[in-house]
Amino acid sequence: MLNKAQTTYLIKQKAQELGFMYCGVSKADFLEEEAPRLESWLKQNMHGQMHYMENHFDKRLDPRLLVEGAKSVVSLLLNYFPEKDSQQPNEGTYKVSKYAYGTDYHFVIKDKLKTLLQYINEEVGEVGGRCFVDSAPVLDKAWAKKSGLGWVGKNSNLITPQVGSFYFIAELIIDLELEYDGPIKDYCGSCTRCLDACPTDAIVAPYVVDGSKCISYFTIELKDQLPQEMNGKFGNWIFGCDICQDVCPWNRFSKPHKEPAFEPHPQLKEMKTSDWEEITQEVFSQLFKKSAVKRTGYKGLLRNIQFVEQTTDPQA
What we know:
With 316 residues, the chain is of the alpha+beta class. The protein is built from 11 helices and 10 strands. The chain has helices at residues 4-17, 34-43, 57-61, 105-124, 140-146, 193-197, 215-221, 243-246, 273-277, 281-287, 297-311, and strands at 22-27, 72-79, 95-96, 129-132, 151-152, 158-159, 167-174, 203-205, 208-209, 237-239. A hairpin with a 5-residue loop joins strand 5 and strand 6.
């Protein structure tokens, strides 16, 4: 029989083998600190039209309501930072957020999590649990923070000292008691680069992001017409936005990922302004067949391109 420390070590070793950057563990308990914050954020309508954020309030705060008998939350980070020559140019053409360059992360991570859960069952015995990748009411950043994987920065992203913040967060919630990690210190200090750089003033105060003002929200979540008062504020971003991460000093430590599935479609980095503006349904389907960009849809992407095109004149 393995003890808690041995089991925890085995899980972390297997996570590393599967390509996860870091793995941390916290006790499956009620998120007391998060409850008033989430309630206040929702009351101020900072979620905009993301009405799903209002659902399952209790489940978001207590993993034991998601997995019966849950004892541990295993948080995992998977790097998606691209090689320099894979990145789109900063100037001159329309831009897609780095996380959406390759295959939709939901599929990639879900497979890895299932493999990890199967491994736990083989090595430890029957363990009940569920895999979560940004598609259920789980407060990813809160659990990763509790597990010591980083601190939540002023731009509301999780930041890890050695690697920055260009990674996905996922969880296994299991009914197995493990050795728990503790949180680390906040190292944002007096830096306000993310607040100063946000073109839509979505970071309304340090550690508070009004989601309904974020370029990512407008270009992905909002299904209506884009508000005219945002005219000229998107730069060249047509799907998502990386500005608050790009300016974060901690991201100078970001290293390229080693996940083949996250490599961009060869055609993506060759796309010129004119290619984007003339994109057809066929090219969209081919280029973003397995990508998260499918979330906004062809019509949504066209809307975003036309909105940005009105106010910028990028050179092809």
